Structure formats: C-alpha cells, structure tokens
Amino acid sequence: MHDPLEPADGSTFYAIAHPLRRAIIDRLRQGDSVVEEMAADLNRSPADIEPHLLLLLRAGLLRSHMDDGGPVWSLVPAGLGEVDRWITPYRPFKLVRMADLQHLVESELRNGR
C-alpha cells in the first residue's frame, strides 16, 4: 500500500520539494549544463547531483541529450504546468510569504489532496 505522505515517484510536487532539486531547476533556468558545471555552481559533487537529475527527468522537468562531453541537461518549463495549474486559483490571494504556501501544501497533503 502506498503511504500518502510519500508521494509517488514522478510527481512534480515531490520533485520540487527538495531544495537541491529546486536549485538545479534554478540553475538550468540560466541555460543548459553538464553535471560537472552544475555541481561546481551548486558547490556539490557530481555524485550528489546525478540522482536528483534522474528524478527531475522522470518527473518531466528536465531532458538531456548527448554531446561530445556526455549528457547535457535542459529545463522543460512545461513540466511545471501541474504546479502552475494548482497555484493559479490562489494567485488572487497574493501570498505574501512562501512560508504561507508551504503551510498550505502541507495541509493539502495531510488532507489527502
């Protein structure tokens, strides 16, 4: 049986829940990159970054293509569509702090939504 507090692999919300994965997304917003560049930019080792890249890939947030130096990673902005659709109804409330949004998400998870 699936634990409702443990989102399924491939979930966009699960993918963006980790701070390192959000940092990777922010980094790739600046442009395509290889693992070594991202690791250096984020002060992490390539081994720390790679599992997160694969999870973001499975969630549809990243894509990669092979180049002479190995895989080049790119952001897939459309992959954030699920997040955009979810947050759109809340935009009129003009959330002042992201902490408010975090509490809202945690409440939704507790209520099984």
UniProtKB/TrEMBL annotation:
Start and end residues of each HTH arsR-type domain: 11-92
Domain of life: Bacteria
UniProt cross-references to InterPro entries, sorted A to Z: HTH_ArsR_DNA-bd_dom, WH-like_DNA-bd_sf, WH_DNA-bd_sf
GO MF annotation terms: DNA-binding transcription factor activity
Name recorded for this polypeptide: HTH arsR-type domain-containing protein
Species the sequence originates in: Azorhizobium oxalatiphilum
